[in-house]
Amino acid sequence: MEYTIGTIGRCIVMRLHEDDHVYECIETTAQKEQLSHGVVLMIGGVKNGKVVVGPKDQNQRPLDPVLKNFSDAHEIAGIGTIFPNEKGVPLLHMHATMGKGDSPITGCPRQGLDCWLVTEIVILELKGIDAARVREESGMELLKLFTQ
What are the structural domains, with CATH classification, of the chain? Predict the structure, then answer.
């Protein structure tokens, strides 16, 4: 286990509108506001999801994801983190539960997610954290802490 300690800085509240691309809106806002480290909270409605729900084989490298797609409106509750990649670009890693009726989906919607009606997002900036997303053998950019 590794950990580091920081503080909370600014708070950004966002309202996405119909058809806004969720990841693009969050990452673009983070870049515009020069927010490189943060926690993301999200609730609302989404559609056009492409959700990674696990690897086909947990021992295979690089990982081959299993995707669950949906096009119609779903409710969502999600949480994520923003950390810069090796080029300093802030990247969102989020997991969420989405559902419609009795059809829940839980996973990482990094391959596509659009706002349906309204999606609310709160970003809490993390200050004093020395960490980044570094590409590993898994083929993914995973969190690396540089201080303890």
Answer: 15-122+131-136 (3.30.1330.80)
